[in-house]
Amino acid sequence: MKNVKRYFLSFLAALSIVLLALGAVKTFAEDNTPGENDTYDVVLTKVKLTDLSKWNAPTGTTTGLDGSSYTGQKLDRAKYFGTTETLANVWFDVYKDTPTGTPVAGKATGADGTVTFTGLKAGKYYIVENKAKSTLTSDEQLANSAAVPVEINLPVFKAEGGWYTTGTDAVHVYPKNTVDKPSINKVVSEDAKHDTALVGETKTFKVTSTMPEGIKDYKVLKFTDTFTAGLTYTGNLVVKKGDTVVAPSNYSTDGTSVAGTKAATINVAFKEDYIKTLSPKDVITITYNAVINEDAVMGAANPNDVKLTYGTNPDSTKEVKPNEKPELHTGGAKFEKVDKATSAKLAGAKFVVTNAEGKYLKVTDATATTIAKNEWIEATDAKAAVTAGAKVFTSASNGTFEVKGLPYGVKGDDNTTGETKYKLVEVEAPNGYALLQQPVEFTISSTTYTGKINQVNNNKVTIPQTGGIGSALVIAAGVLVVGLGFIAKRRSAK
């Protein structure tokens, strides 16, 4: 009986050991299996790179520049990527099972380029970059990307055992982007930043813009040019991509001034469907015509201010302008007609203006429906030029007159550089004064209209003075003529 009891107790002891062991195995297994209701965090860092070639392999890469391996842990970005730069305000949407539909979460990266998504249960997730909701603070926009969208199965298991959970033990992901922005340049007369012109002379402005990486994702691409009061828009708006004219149905010109408007505004806003057809390095060219008008400040720059508004987010657009504003300029000069001997002011002197080619200046004043226009006409001489319509400049009662709207310098010179010489030809002298026999040369530059007034001198017409032997001879001749007339009359009476 004692043996039976002893054997029974030994059996119970052995059984308890076995049961304890089984319990320990079960507890260990439960501790190494994620719970059904467990949640996980994902820490996303948006890395800014200048070259994605290493990170765009078909299967991606898990080896950093330093040779270290990535399995979901937090990385030393300087060593792994070769940079610590990140992108703030990039929006990401989180989708469950499929990268479309209704997102289960969405946030933008913070100032440090990171964002944490919390409370995600086990399963497959897609973290998708949303450019349309991103609000980058720099002028650049998101361009090319790598590891976007992020596909992740939660939980992510660690190489050394266990899995990433929450907080400081969360899994880290690193989508990468380059950034880019469109360029803009503007010239006048084909290739110059500056040009000079007659008032009313047509000049063509040309805006060019090279499309950036990521252009297909842009929602806004709008060009706006604003003229100063001294410029008049004369139309002929043409839009091209490369050498191909873009149909007007692909862009809007709402808000563009009509031709003939001073201080005009020109708008070209491409439609979103057309933007999607553009590719990086495509060149958009916009040309239109303008003239310097009669309100232009003589010798001053008459610029127009063009800008390009762009962005992937219509509510957070950027602007870029050319480094240098192109401009047109024109000049003038003031004159004073005076007596050479007394400096008395002389009214009624009449002149025409000629250029170096011997052509004469014709001036057509502005009307309610037309633009003022200066032009050069040909004529055999000054009198013929007046007959042909050349402008006649007449000195006022104070002897003054002025010439405005003449070009100076050469194409490419800004308004402060260069000068050009012209000539005044007198076609009618003031009453009692001799007509000038030689043209009067004058100069047009940036300072001649506001600077020193040019004096044009005339001499009075002179006649022989009476008295002395001269007068005696004249009197004798007069007496002789009268006497001969009297004798002739007596003979005819007989």
Automatic annotation (TrEMBL):
Ranges that cross the membrane: 468-488
Signal peptide: 1-29
Keywords: Membrane, Signal, Transmembrane, Transmembrane helix
Domain SpaA-like prealbumin fold: 333-458
Compositional bias segments (type: Basic and acidic residues): 316-330
Record bears the keyword Nucleus: no
Domain Gram-positive pilin subunit D1 N-terminal intervals: 53-178
Superkingdom field: Bacteria
Region ranges (Disordered): 308-330
Protein name: Cell wall surface anchor family protein
Source organism of the structure: Streptococcus massiliensis
